[in-house]
Amino acid sequence: MKRVDEHLADILGAIRQLPPLELALPESYGGVLAEPVTAPVDLPPFDNSAMDGYAVLAADVAAASETSPVTLAVAGDIAAGDQGAYDIDPGRCARIMTGAPLPAGADAIVPVEWTDGGTAEVTIRRSATPGHYIRRAGEDVTAGTTVLPAGTRLGAAQIGMLAAVGRARVLVRPRPRVAVLSTGTELVEPGEPVGPGQIWDSNSFALTAAVTEAGGVGFRAGSVGDDPREVLATIEERLASADVIITSGGVSMGAYDVVKEVLSGLGTMRFEKVAMRPGKPQGFGLLDDRVPVFTLPGNPVSAYVSFQVFVRPALRALQGLPPEPPRTVRARLTAPVTSPGGLRHYLRAVLSPAEGEHHVAPAEAQGSHQVFALSSSNALIVVPEDVTDLRTGDTVDVLELP
Amino acid sequence: MKRVDEHLADILGAIRQLPPLELALPESYGGVLAEPVTAPVDLPPFDNSAMDGYAVLAADVAAASETSPVTLAVAGDIAAGDQGAYDIDPGRCARIMTGAPLPAGADAIVPVEWTDGGTAEVTIRRSATPGHYIRRAGEDVTAGTTVLPAGTRLGAAQIGMLAAVGRARVLVRPRPRVAVLSTGTELVEPGEPVGPGQIWDSNSFALTAAVTEAGGVGFRAGSVGDDPREVLATIEERLASADVIITSGGVSMGAYDVVKEVLSGLGTMRFEKVAMRPGKPQGFGLLDDRVPVFTLPGNPVSAYVSFQVFVRPALRALQGLPPEPPRTVRARLTAPVTSPGGLRHYLRAVLSPAEGEHHVAPAEAQGSHQVFALSSSNALIVVPEDVTDLRTGDTVDVLELP
Ligand code: NWS
Ligand code: NWS
After folding, report:
1. Residues in domain MoaB/Mog (chains A, B) (predicted)?
2. Cα–Cα distance between B60 and A151 in angstroms, integer?
């Protein structure tokens, strides 16, 4: 059997980064910059006021105090957005708002709280030194500076940075679009009645949501039966529009394992047994030389765990991000765990973060069909291949589920 | 000045949970259950096979071994989705696929790997005991069990659980819809040229993305100038469709502080100074008895920090989730920090997580207009009100930015 690390390495070795797209700023959220972004101008673009107050010559107010205030003539108002319309000469000042450009001649700002707030004349009760409450052009960023290197993932703060340098569109590797397909004649849409032998399709819903959680854009390509032509047609239809295809079911040893049947020999598809539990039967390959296809096992817990272990890192690699699994922490077991050895075991568990030391409690129900234990877990305990027995209090690696 | 905790408590005290909506399963992602969900049937609904193989009477194969294999007649095939069509009598078995219902009479599954794979007759080379590779009805969940309590946030695993119990629609407190409005005559849309005194609007883009990061649905209500009628009209227009409104700018001491001007006296709006840096001028209240309105300060770093400290917890409270700020960790300072005291200081910083001990390096540029430092940070150091000096190596609270 293939090791988990080997299978992941093969997947990542086959993944090429998505071609960059030019997207409007709001749509670029979650994308990864495919160009370095530089500031076209200084930020701030001009010297401006950090306060609502008066733009003065510091020399004029150097002696101002509560007991001997200074009175200056007010030339007028400068609001944010105005051009620096006034020249400040000795004895004169301008009322100025936060963010408004510093008028020529002025070299300090006196906040309105230190004054009587006058509009024709103003009385100032405290002194200010040159530069006081002035934000200088370029003190955030100078023109030409790279504010965001290529490879930056765009979160809210980075979107703000792009807007601040005037970018309305930006070249990014977009969030991957992932089509998710369930296979199985036994599957019924939730909301419809189930007959004998039937169950509701859960994988296509869970995996589509998992794609969102991993930073992609998931869409359900629905649930198809075990008819080879229908399965192949559905996959082929998605090849043009999806960046990734995920299927669930139909890959083990059965006489009706339709996914394996229709995809074997296509593109670089390979079907393998990976030394892990759950998640043993795995398939992966590129179709049309381009689209990574993951054929995950049908058992719902197996499909979910396989997603976190293989698909999530691959989605990140498509964007050029480090191909990490979910965040890993160390935690102490609150109960013993046994593992067959020779395979990597992922156990559903509840992690209780605590300062200093986390604790993790394995769920009782560890069957790959037991979705209740999964849906009430927040973590996966990772038992390495060479470990068979862990005791209460032992420290283990734990993947935090999103 | 008001303390941060007091202001947050006032906000949370005013927030009422959003009314529940019935949403289709894929749209419910990120919502919070407003009903407990129970299983209408057992899961699995019927005894079924965990393996591709043969459904047998354990007694028939009790003596099977490599050296003395047992041969049974194969009554036919049972695929997943089939009804249990055959009765298994002594000497007979049925070929069965993973997930297919166990036929009457059978009490064990022999995997195909232990057999010659025959279809009319099959030769079995290993013994099996009763219950072997059978998944019993109800061993995941019994009918009537609450699988997800009200108050559960719906991530991928929970969406899977809902589908598994057949739910196509579900009652949730949805992700809050948040309208984000920038105010300021100086603001220009990114992509347009800036003239003297003008800057590009960044807050409306950054805050809209921050809403998404916090689990809401953000939409830009655009950028308006300092015209009171226009500002008020834009806010009123959004009251009907938004669950929350966020404005930026126009709330400090200026003669043109339009947001404060138009909203003062409306609903429960209050404008206050909060003892924090950045983020001193804050406004909050309910309009129309229903819609929380946050008027954040215009400086981009102030708006962003205020969002994390006040708006994010409030968005969570609207869904009935614990009103937490971003995840807090403890880390050691790599450089000294001074703070004015009497206010809570949030410093932009780079957190380097490490096993055992995290390190955090404060950015040099801590001005509330310095977006470059923010966009290259991943954390906020929190310096409490009563602390003025911290030294290299001191341990501090750090908010991890999303
Ligand atoms: N002889 C032999 N038999 C074997 C194995 C082997 O080594 N040898 N390996 C195991 C393992 S070992 Mo594991 O990961 O370590 O737990 S998965 C695994 C499994 C993979 O089988 P596969 O062909 O992928 O899936 P199938 O379509 O058969 O479904 C599998 C189950 O999942 C349900 N299911 C499907 N789709 C959905 C959906 N959308 N929503 C909800 N449930 C769904 C479906 O009803 C069925 O109960 O086969 C087993 N059989
Ligand atoms: N006398 C006195 N004056 C004071 C204070 C005081 O105590 N006394 N307090 C301080 C503090 S103290 Mo701080 O949080 O601790 O750093 S904010 C703060 C500030 C809040 O002022 P406000 O009225 O909210 O905002 P305005 O519209 O004036 O803009 C503010 C800045 O932000 C820019 N800006 C606006 N919108 C956007 C946008 N969408 N995109 C990009 N930039 C934008 C805009 O150009 C301008 O430079 O006033 C100060 N002035």
Report:
1. 179-317
2. 63
